[in-house]
Protein backbone atom coordinates (compact mmCIF):
# COMPACT_ATOMS: atom_id res chain seq x y z
CA UNK A 1 0.00 0.00 0.00
CA UNK A 2 1.31 3.45 -0.88
CA UNK A 3 1.42 5.78 2.09
CA UNK A 4 -0.75 8.89 1.76
CA UNK A 5 1.07 12.03 0.69
CA UNK A 6 1.60 14.56 3.49
CA UNK A 7 0.19 17.91 2.44
CA UNK A 8 1.98 21.16 3.16
CA UNK A 9 -0.05 23.83 4.93
CA UNK A 10 0.24 27.56 4.28
CA UNK A 11 0.09 30.35 6.81
CA UNK A 12 -1.54 33.74 6.27
CA UNK A 13 1.57 34.95 4.42
CA UNK A 14 1.44 32.06 1.95
CA UNK A 15 4.51 30.34 3.40
CA UNK A 16 4.41 26.54 3.26
CA UNK A 17 4.90 24.54 6.45
CA UNK A 18 4.93 20.85 7.23
CA UNK A 19 1.76 19.69 9.03
CA UNK A 20 1.71 19.67 12.81
CA UNK A 21 2.96 16.62 14.64
CA UNK A 22 0.17 15.11 16.71
CA UNK A 23 1.45 12.81 19.42
CA UNK A 24 -1.12 10.16 20.35
CA UNK A 25 -0.41 9.09 23.92
CA UNK A 26 -2.13 5.78 24.57
CA UNK A 27 -2.45 3.18 27.31
CA UNK A 28 -0.65 -0.14 27.08
CA UNK A 29 -3.43 -2.46 25.88
CA UNK A 30 -4.03 -5.55 27.99
CA UNK A 31 -4.05 -8.94 26.25
CA UNK A 32 -7.35 -10.69 25.53
CA UNK A 33 -9.43 -7.55 25.82
CA UNK A 34 -11.36 -5.50 23.28
CA UNK A 35 -9.22 -2.64 22.05
CA UNK A 36 -11.98 -0.11 21.48
CA UNK A 37 -9.73 2.90 22.08
CA UNK A 38 -7.07 1.52 19.79
CA UNK A 39 -9.54 0.82 16.96
CA UNK A 40 -10.96 4.35 17.23
CA UNK A 41 -7.67 6.20 17.04
CA UNK A 42 -5.85 3.87 14.64
CA UNK A 43 -8.55 4.61 12.08
CA UNK A 44 -8.48 8.34 12.89
CA UNK A 45 -4.73 8.55 12.33
CA UNK A 46 -5.03 6.75 9.01
CA UNK A 47 -7.70 9.15 7.78
CA UNK A 48 -5.77 12.24 8.84
CA UNK A 49 -2.32 11.06 7.76
CA UNK A 50 -2.33 13.50 4.83
CA UNK A 51 -3.19 16.46 7.08
CA UNK A 52 -1.09 15.79 10.20
CA UNK A 53 2.08 13.95 11.09
CA UNK A 54 0.85 11.39 13.63
CA UNK A 55 3.14 9.69 16.11
CA UNK A 56 2.05 7.03 18.59
CA UNK A 57 3.51 6.50 22.03
CA UNK A 58 2.07 3.65 24.05
CA UNK A 59 2.58 3.62 27.81
CA UNK A 60 5.52 1.45 28.85
CA UNK A 61 3.49 -0.19 31.64
CA UNK A 62 -0.05 -1.18 32.44
CA UNK A 63 -1.83 1.48 34.46
CA UNK A 64 -1.45 -0.18 37.85
CA UNK A 65 0.28 1.08 40.98
CA UNK A 66 1.59 4.51 41.93
CA UNK A 67 5.19 4.13 40.70
CA UNK A 68 4.20 2.72 37.33
CA UNK A 69 1.69 5.50 36.81
CA UNK A 70 4.28 8.16 37.59
CA UNK A 71 6.61 6.52 35.06
CA UNK A 72 3.79 6.44 32.49
CA UNK A 73 3.24 10.18 32.98
CA UNK A 74 6.98 10.94 32.70
CA UNK A 75 7.21 8.82 29.56
CA UNK A 76 4.29 10.74 28.03
CA UNK A 77 5.98 14.05 28.86
CA UNK A 78 9.07 12.92 26.96
CA UNK A 79 7.06 12.15 23.81
CA UNK A 80 5.15 15.39 23.24
CA UNK A 81 4.43 16.82 19.80
CA UNK A 82 3.13 20.08 18.42
CA UNK A 83 -0.14 18.81 19.84
CA UNK A 84 -0.69 16.01 22.35
CA UNK A 85 -3.79 13.84 22.19
CA UNK A 86 -4.17 11.79 25.34
CA UNK A 87 -6.65 9.17 24.23
CA UNK A 88 -8.03 7.90 27.51
CA UNK A 89 -7.46 5.52 30.42
CA UNK A 90 -4.18 7.21 31.45
CA UNK A 91 -5.77 10.62 31.99
CA UNK A 92 -3.43 11.41 34.90
CA UNK A 93 -0.55 11.81 32.40
CA UNK A 94 -1.99 15.18 31.36
CA UNK A 95 -0.59 16.60 34.62
CA UNK A 96 2.90 16.30 33.06
CA UNK A 97 2.06 17.74 29.62
CA UNK A 98 2.01 21.27 28.20
CA UNK A 99 -1.55 22.40 28.87
CA UNK A 100 -2.09 24.61 25.81
CA UNK A 101 -0.98 21.79 23.53
CA UNK A 102 -2.97 18.98 25.15
CA UNK A 103 -6.29 17.44 24.14
CA UNK A 104 -7.70 14.90 26.59
CA UNK A 105 -10.34 12.35 25.60
CA UNK A 106 -12.53 11.06 28.43
CA UNK A 107 -14.96 8.50 27.08
CA UNK A 108 -17.37 8.65 30.01
CA UNK A 109 -17.56 8.68 33.81
CA UNK A 110 -18.96 5.17 34.16
CA UNK A 111 -15.96 3.91 36.13
CA UNK A 112 -16.90 6.20 39.02
CA UNK A 113 -20.24 4.43 39.40
CA UNK A 114 -18.40 1.30 40.49
CA UNK A 115 -16.27 2.92 43.23
CA UNK A 116 -16.96 4.18 46.75
CA UNK A 117 -15.19 6.06 49.53
CA UNK A 118 -11.52 7.04 49.32
CA UNK A 119 -10.91 5.03 46.17
CA UNK A 120 -13.66 6.90 44.35
CA UNK A 121 -12.29 10.27 45.56
CA UNK A 122 -8.77 9.46 44.34
CA UNK A 123 -10.08 8.26 41.00
CA UNK A 124 -12.22 11.35 40.60
CA UNK A 125 -9.31 13.73 41.33
CA UNK A 126 -6.55 11.94 39.39
CA UNK A 127 -8.53 10.71 36.37
CA UNK A 128 -11.12 13.48 36.01
CA UNK A 129 -10.86 16.71 38.01
CA UNK A 130 -7.10 17.46 37.77
CA UNK A 131 -6.54 16.05 34.24
CA UNK A 132 -9.46 18.07 32.88
CA UNK A 133 -7.97 21.25 34.35
CA UNK A 134 -4.55 20.36 32.92
CA UNK A 135 -5.77 20.01 29.33
CA UNK A 136 -6.66 22.79 26.91
CA UNK A 137 -9.71 20.92 25.62
CA UNK A 138 -11.52 17.75 26.67
CA UNK A 139 -13.46 15.59 24.23
CA UNK A 140 -16.07 12.98 25.00
CA UNK A 141 -18.36 10.80 22.94
CA UNK A 142 -21.94 11.89 23.71
CA UNK A 143 -23.92 14.73 25.25
CA UNK A 144 -24.94 12.35 28.01
CA UNK A 145 -21.28 11.56 28.77
CA UNK A 146 -20.49 15.29 28.79
CA UNK A 147 -23.17 16.04 31.38
CA UNK A 148 -22.03 13.06 33.45
CA UNK A 149 -18.37 14.17 33.36
CA UNK A 150 -19.34 17.73 34.36
CA UNK A 151 -20.58 16.34 37.69
CA UNK A 152 -16.98 15.38 38.51
CA UNK A 153 -14.87 18.23 37.11
CA UNK A 154 -14.58 21.96 37.77
CA UNK A 155 -14.24 23.37 34.26
CA UNK A 156 -16.53 25.41 31.96
CA UNK A 157 -19.00 23.27 30.03
CA UNK A 158 -17.74 24.65 26.71
CA UNK A 159 -14.29 23.23 27.41
CA UNK A 160 -15.77 19.76 26.79
CA UNK A 161 -16.48 19.04 23.12
CA UNK A 162 -18.63 16.14 21.96
CA UNK A 163 -17.22 14.10 19.09
CA UNK A 164 -19.03 10.77 18.63
CA UNK A 165 -17.41 7.42 17.98
CA UNK A 166 -17.06 6.53 14.31
CA UNK A 167 -18.46 3.22 13.12
CA UNK A 168 -15.85 1.00 11.50
CA UNK A 169 -16.16 0.75 7.70
CA UNK A 170 -16.09 -3.03 8.14
CA UNK A 171 -19.73 -2.81 9.26
CA UNK A 172 -21.58 -2.75 5.93
CA UNK A 173 -25.22 -3.33 5.04
CA UNK A 174 -25.83 -7.05 4.54
CA UNK A 175 -29.45 -7.95 4.05
CA UNK A 176 -30.81 -11.13 5.57
CA UNK A 177 -34.34 -12.58 5.83
CA UNK A 178 -35.62 -12.16 9.39
CA UNK A 179 -36.22 -15.47 11.18
CA UNK A 180 -39.39 -14.67 13.11
CA UNK A 181 -39.87 -18.31 14.21
CA UNK A 182 -36.57 -18.51 16.11
CA UNK A 183 -34.49 -15.33 15.76
CA UNK A 184 -30.84 -15.13 16.64
CA UNK A 185 -30.55 -12.40 19.27
CA UNK A 186 -27.11 -10.83 19.63
CA UNK A 187 -25.91 -9.59 23.05
CA UNK A 188 -22.61 -7.68 23.05
CA UNK A 189 -20.88 -7.61 26.45
CA UNK A 190 -21.41 -9.39 29.76
CA UNK A 191 -20.36 -6.84 32.39
CA UNK A 192 -22.95 -5.86 34.98
CA UNK A 193 -24.12 -2.77 33.11
CA UNK A 194 -24.80 -4.87 29.99
CA UNK A 195 -27.82 -6.25 31.86
CA UNK A 196 -27.62 -9.87 30.78
CA UNK A 197 -29.08 -10.78 34.17
CA UNK A 198 -32.43 -9.25 33.11
CA UNK A 199 -32.25 -10.14 29.43
CA UNK A 200 -32.14 -13.87 30.17
CA UNK A 201 -35.47 -14.04 32.05
CA UNK A 202 -36.96 -11.57 29.56
CA UNK A 203 -36.40 -14.18 26.83
CA UNK A 204 -38.22 -16.94 28.72
CA UNK A 205 -41.00 -18.36 26.50
CA UNK A 206 -39.67 -16.48 23.43
CA UNK A 207 -38.35 -19.04 20.90
CA UNK A 208 -34.87 -17.74 20.04
CA UNK A 209 -31.16 -18.42 20.14
CA UNK A 210 -29.15 -15.96 22.23
CA UNK A 211 -25.69 -15.19 20.85
CA UNK A 212 -23.42 -13.71 23.50
CA UNK A 213 -20.09 -11.98 22.96
CA UNK A 214 -18.12 -11.85 26.21
CA UNK A 215 -17.11 -14.21 29.03
CA UNK A 216 -19.88 -16.02 30.88
CA UNK A 217 -19.74 -16.74 34.60
CA UNK A 218 -21.08 -20.00 36.00
CA UNK A 219 -23.97 -17.96 37.41
CA UNK A 220 -24.95 -16.80 33.92
CA UNK A 221 -24.58 -20.31 32.49
CA UNK A 222 -26.82 -21.73 35.22
CA UNK A 223 -29.37 -18.98 34.61
CA UNK A 224 -29.44 -19.68 30.87
CA UNK A 225 -30.02 -23.35 31.64
CA UNK A 226 -32.74 -22.71 34.22
CA UNK A 227 -34.68 -20.49 31.78
CA UNK A 228 -34.12 -23.00 28.98
CA UNK A 229 -32.40 -20.44 26.71
CA UNK A 230 -30.47 -21.88 23.77
CA UNK A 231 -27.26 -19.91 23.35
CA UNK A 232 -23.84 -19.58 21.76
CA UNK A 233 -20.92 -17.80 23.37
CA UNK A 234 -17.73 -16.24 22.01
CA UNK A 235 -14.81 -14.38 23.57
CA UNK A 236 -11.65 -12.70 22.27
CA UNK A 237 -13.05 -12.16 18.78
CA UNK A 238 -11.27 -10.20 16.09
CA UNK A 239 -13.14 -7.28 14.55
CA UNK A 240 -13.82 -9.39 11.44
CA UNK A 241 -15.34 -12.10 13.62
CA UNK A 242 -17.48 -9.54 15.47
CA UNK A 243 -18.81 -8.25 12.14
CA UNK A 244 -19.73 -11.83 11.20
CA UNK A 245 -21.77 -12.18 14.42
CA UNK A 246 -23.78 -9.09 13.49
CA UNK A 247 -24.36 -10.38 9.96
CA UNK A 248 -25.61 -13.72 11.22
CA UNK A 249 -27.99 -12.36 13.87
CA UNK A 250 -31.58 -11.22 13.41
CA UNK A 251 -31.69 -8.52 16.07
CA UNK A 252 -29.48 -6.80 18.60
CA UNK A 253 -30.57 -6.67 22.24
CA UNK A 254 -28.55 -3.91 23.90
CA UNK A 255 -30.50 -3.16 27.07
CA UNK A 256 -27.69 -1.75 29.20
CA UNK A 257 -28.29 0.14 32.42
CA UNK A 258 -25.43 2.55 31.62
CA UNK A 259 -23.44 3.47 28.51
CA UNK A 260 -21.34 6.50 27.66
CA UNK A 261 -22.08 5.86 24.00
CA UNK A 262 -23.32 2.41 22.90
CA UNK A 263 -21.38 1.49 19.77
CA UNK A 264 -23.26 -1.80 19.13
CA UNK A 265 -26.38 0.25 18.34
CA UNK A 266 -24.65 1.95 15.41
CA UNK A 267 -22.89 -1.23 14.30
CA UNK A 268 -26.21 -3.08 14.10
CA UNK A 269 -27.76 -0.10 12.29
CA UNK A 270 -24.94 -0.18 9.72
CA UNK A 271 -25.33 -3.92 9.07
CA UNK A 272 -29.10 -3.63 8.77
CA UNK A 273 -30.24 -5.37 11.95
CA UNK A 274 -33.12 -4.23 14.11
CA UNK A 275 -32.14 -2.87 17.54
CA UNK A 276 -33.80 -3.08 20.95
CA UNK A 277 -32.02 -0.79 23.40
CA UNK A 278 -32.51 1.18 26.60
CA UNK A 279 -34.41 4.41 27.16
CA UNK A 280 -31.72 5.83 29.48
CA UNK A 281 -28.16 7.23 29.55
CA UNK A 282 -26.67 7.80 26.07
CA UNK A 283 -28.65 5.17 24.22
CA UNK A 284 -31.65 7.27 23.06
CA UNK A 285 -29.17 9.92 21.86
CA UNK A 286 -27.17 7.42 19.83
CA UNK A 287 -30.14 5.42 18.52
CA UNK A 288 -32.31 8.40 17.60
CA UNK A 289 -35.53 7.02 16.11
CA UNK A 290 -33.79 3.87 14.86
CA UNK A 291 -34.41 1.48 17.77
CA UNK A 292 -37.14 0.10 19.98
CA UNK A 293 -36.53 1.70 23.40
CA UNK A 294 -37.24 -0.25 26.59
CA UNK A 295 -36.82 0.23 30.34
CA UNK A 296 -33.66 -1.78 31.14
CA UNK A 297 -34.71 -2.19 34.78
CA UNK A 298 -37.96 -3.93 33.80
CA UNK A 299 -37.83 -7.53 32.58
CA UNK A 300 -41.35 -7.16 31.21
CA UNK A 301 -40.44 -4.02 29.23
CA UNK A 302 -37.45 -5.79 27.66
CA UNK A 303 -39.63 -8.80 26.82
CA UNK A 304 -42.33 -6.70 25.17
CA UNK A 305 -39.82 -4.66 23.17
CA UNK A 306 -38.25 -7.82 21.77
CA UNK A 307 -41.62 -9.43 21.10
CA UNK A 308 -42.79 -6.41 19.16
CA UNK A 309 -39.88 -6.35 16.73
CA UNK A 310 -40.26 -10.10 16.21
CA UNK A 311 -44.02 -10.03 15.56
CA UNK A 312 -44.52 -6.65 13.84
CA UNK A 313 -42.77 -6.89 10.48
CA UNK A 314 -43.71 -3.37 9.35
CA UNK A 315 -42.40 -1.80 12.58
CA UNK A 316 -39.23 -3.89 12.35
CA UNK A 317 -38.53 -2.82 8.77
CA UNK A 318 -39.17 0.82 9.64
CA UNK A 319 -36.53 0.63 12.38
CA UNK A 320 -34.06 -1.07 10.04
CA UNK A 321 -34.54 1.62 7.38
CA UNK A 322 -34.12 4.37 9.96
CA UNK A 323 -31.02 2.59 11.24
CA UNK A 324 -29.34 2.78 7.83
CA UNK A 325 -29.80 6.56 7.91
CA UNK A 326 -28.76 6.82 11.56
CA UNK A 327 -25.45 5.05 10.93
CA UNK A 328 -24.44 7.79 8.49
CA UNK A 329 -24.16 10.25 11.40
CA UNK A 330 -21.15 8.25 12.58
CA UNK A 331 -19.27 8.05 9.28
CA UNK A 332 -15.51 7.86 10.00
CA UNK A 333 -14.65 10.60 7.50
CA UNK A 334 -17.05 13.04 9.19
CA UNK A 335 -15.69 12.20 12.64
CA UNK A 336 -12.08 12.56 11.44
CA UNK A 337 -12.80 16.04 10.10
CA UNK A 338 -14.27 17.05 13.45
CA UNK A 339 -11.03 16.04 15.16
CA UNK A 340 -8.92 17.81 12.52
CA UNK A 341 -10.87 21.04 13.03
CA UNK A 342 -10.31 20.78 16.77
CA UNK A 343 -6.58 20.08 16.33
CA UNK A 344 -6.26 23.18 14.17
CA UNK A 345 -8.20 25.27 16.68
CA UNK A 346 -5.90 24.20 19.51
CA UNK A 347 -2.78 24.74 17.40
CA UNK A 348 -3.85 28.29 16.53
CA UNK A 349 -4.63 29.04 20.16
CA UNK A 350 -1.27 27.76 21.39
Helix-strand blueprint:
Blueprint: E1 9-10, E2 16-17, E3 21-26, H1 36-48, E4 53-58, H2 66-77, E5 83-86, E6 102-105, H3 117-134, E7 137-140, H4 143-150, E8 160-162, E9 184-188, H5 196-202, E10 209-213, H6 218-226, E11 230-234, H7 239-248, E12 251-254, H8 263-271, E13 274-278, H9 283-287, E14 292-294, H10 299-311, H11 313-327, H12 332-349
Parallel strand pairs: 3-4, 3-5, 5-6, 6-7, 7-8, 9-10, 9-12, 10-11, 12-13, 13-14
Antiparallel strand pairs: 1-2
Helix pairs in contact: 1-12, 5-10, 8-11
How would you sum up this structure in a few lines?
39% of the residues lie in helices and 17% in strands. With 350 residues, the chain is of the alpha/beta class.
What is the 3D shape? globular
The radius of gyration is 22 Å
**What about the largest sheet?**
6 strands, parallel
Taking the alpha carbons of the first and last residues, their distance comes to 35 Å
Count of helical regions: 12
* Count of structural domains: 2
Strand elements, count: 14
CATH architecture of the largest domain: 3-Layer(aba) Sandwich
- CATH topological fold name of the largest domain: Rossmann fold
Tell me the β content: 15-25%
**pLDDT under 50 segments (min length 5)?**
1-6
* CATH C-level name of the largest domain: Alpha Beta
The average pLDDT is 93
H and E string: EEEHEHEEHEHEEHEHEHEHEHEHHH
Percentage of residues assigned to helices: 25-40%
Amino acid sequence: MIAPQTKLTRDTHGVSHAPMTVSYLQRKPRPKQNYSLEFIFDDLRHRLSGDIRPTVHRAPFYSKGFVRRVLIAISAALHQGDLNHLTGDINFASLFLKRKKTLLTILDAGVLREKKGLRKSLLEWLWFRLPAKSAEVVTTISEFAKHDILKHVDIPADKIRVIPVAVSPQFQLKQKPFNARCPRILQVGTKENKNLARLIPALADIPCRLQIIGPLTDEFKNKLTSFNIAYDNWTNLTLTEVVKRYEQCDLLAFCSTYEGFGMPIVEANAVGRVVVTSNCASMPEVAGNAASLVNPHSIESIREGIRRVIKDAAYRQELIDRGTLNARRFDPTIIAQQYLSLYEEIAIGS
